[in-house]
Amino acid sequence: MQIIPVASGKGGVGKSLLSANLAIALGQAGKRVVLADLDLGASNLHLVLGQPSPKHGLGTWLLGNGNFADIIQPTEYENLSFIAGDSEIPGLTALKAPQRSKIIKNFKNIDCDYLIIDLGAGTHQIILDLFLLSPQGIVVSAPAVTATLNAYLFLKNAVFRLMNSTFKTSSEAAKWFRELKKSSSAMQKLYIPQMMQELVKVDPKNSEAVMRNLKIFRPRLVMNMIDDPKDADKALRIRRSCKEYLGIDLEHLGVLYRDSLEDKALASRLPIIIYKPQNILSQAIYRIAEKILSSETLAFGAEFEPPADNVNNSFDVATEEAEEDYEAKMAGLRDLLGSGALTEGELVETIKTLSYELTQVRKENTLLKSKLVKAAQQGYKV
Q1: Cα–Cα 20 to 30 A to 277, which of 20, 83, 96, 268?
Q2: What is the Cα Rg of the chain in Å?
């Protein structure tokens, strides 16, 4: 079984969109897939799948109701089963240690080809531990500065968690690491490569195990919500930061263009690759699925020397795909203009109308916020 945790570090970048559609694409390729919603407390992955609200999920099972096998439910999609989260219980970060261990143990024993875990946003220990169930977890980002920064910070926290979990508690390396964590300023100044140089001096044996795990840790990046091929360059910034400050490299799985059809598909309770399989966004997801199907499964602790060319090629290929998809997107618009179905004047008017409507919505939103603040203040005084 290959475990594919999908994380973001920040909400609203399309993590659930990728998880659901990727799971369907792998199922269509003949693989047995289980998709798990780990965003407890805000569980809504079933909506992306178009599934009815689940009666039983991870939450009810954790509370002692039923067996784990009972919450792995079949879906209407080929070879795909689903583990629902639960919005009725506290979030994943509120779970106790035995409950977290219980989730991880049962996940490892699922009988399938691919387990895709849609993680909640954030860098809590349990989220990092679930992400580190595989050296090849997927991080989803968007071109916005906050999204790329959060993607990097998530990976930074994942590296620290990987290092910490590799040490034995009583080892000299663990003691050194605990002392270092007491000084936040020292943690900020030291880059991972520098830290490893110090650790080799303190505890050569444990440092070797850490370096082996860091070498095999190869997260995969998906850049979502891009509007222009230049947006794809933001992935290179994340990669440079990871190589320089964290001592790890990334593989680029591909880019996904922003598409209004995604909202229509969601409103129709259909995943985008079912709603419009020939759509540019759908085809990009299929490409990502193909790359995963052809990739080698890695495991922490194994001896592995990743070919550098494969990583470099992944970024070159992603850049080419961004340009090709953009050209296909523009070709469709040019066809509309050329066919007479949409004139340049109508296009201009449409953009103006949408811009005006967006401005009005923002004004109404500001007004409503003002009213809510006043109402809250009045209620507080009473």
Answers
A1: 83
A2: 23
Residues 188 and 315: their CA atoms lie apart, in Å, by 29
Q: Provide the 8-state DSSP code for 246.
A: I
The count of C-alpha atoms lying within 13 angstroms of the C-alpha of 57, restricted to the half-sphere facing its C-beta, is 26
pLDDT tens profile 77-102: 999 999 998 766 666 667 788 888 89
Is the separation of the CB atoms in 248 and 281 below 8 Å?
no
Backbone angles phi, psi at 37, to 5 degrees: -95, 105
Q: In one letter, which amino acid is 316?
A: D
Q: Are 18 and 222 in contact (CB under 8 A)?
A: yes
**Closest CA relative to residue 50, chosen from 288, 273, 224:** 273
Q: Map residue 249 onto helix, strand or coil.
A: coil
Rounded to whole angstroms, the Cα distance separating 358 from 165 reads 48
Cβ-contact 365, 359 below 8 angstroms = no
Residue 40's Cα: distance from chain center in Å? Answer: 15
**pLDDT at 332 > cutoff 70:** no
CA distance linking residue 356 with residue 79, whole number of Å: 45
